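For the sake of clarity, the format in which proteins appear in this thesis is described at this point. The fold follows as a row of integers, each naming the local backbone shape at the matching residue. One such record is shown here in full, so that the layout can be seen directly:
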Amino acid sequence: MSLLIDDECINCDVCEPECPNGAISQGEDIYIIDPDLCTECVGHYDLPQCVEVCPVDCIDKDPDKAEEQDSLYQKYLKLTA
């Protein structure tokens, strides 16, 4: 499952450099996460780093982009190949 930044985002910029896949970027109004690049840090860390550093807890699982742990790991392998 990809992660999603909601409209509570304060554009503090702490999440973007923490993403090992480069999935986070500045959107029109708030930061956004590219679901094709987001692995929830599977393969890199035990927990999603953006969630860990977000000061306003505005990053949640995207209910429209459900993925199993194995699928996230396969995406990680493809991205790091």
